[in-house]
Each structure stands twice: as C-alpha cells, then as structure tokens.
Amino acid sequence: MRWNDLELFENGRKTAEKMRMSEALKNFNQKNDEYYKFLTIYSNKRG
C-alpha cells in the first residue's frame, strides 16, 4: 500500500463517519420532533 492510498482511505473513512453522524443526528431530530408533536397534541387535549 502506498502512502497516499492510505491517506485516501483515511479521508474516506472520516467522510463516512461524518455522514453517518449527520444521518444519526437527522434521525434523532426527527424522532424528537415527533415526540414534541405528540406532547403538544396530548397537552392540548388535556388543557
């Protein structure tokens, strides 16, 4: 393996991790949104 092959591999791995992180964040935020919508609807029904 040549040096810049290794470098490319590292960069690719970092990029993939960033993408995975932002995917996870998006999913997390989406779940949070649904949860808050549920809470608002629920509290509106009670109030």
From TrEMBL:
<protein>
    <submittedName>
        <fullName>Uncharacterized protein</fullName>
    </submittedName>
</protein>
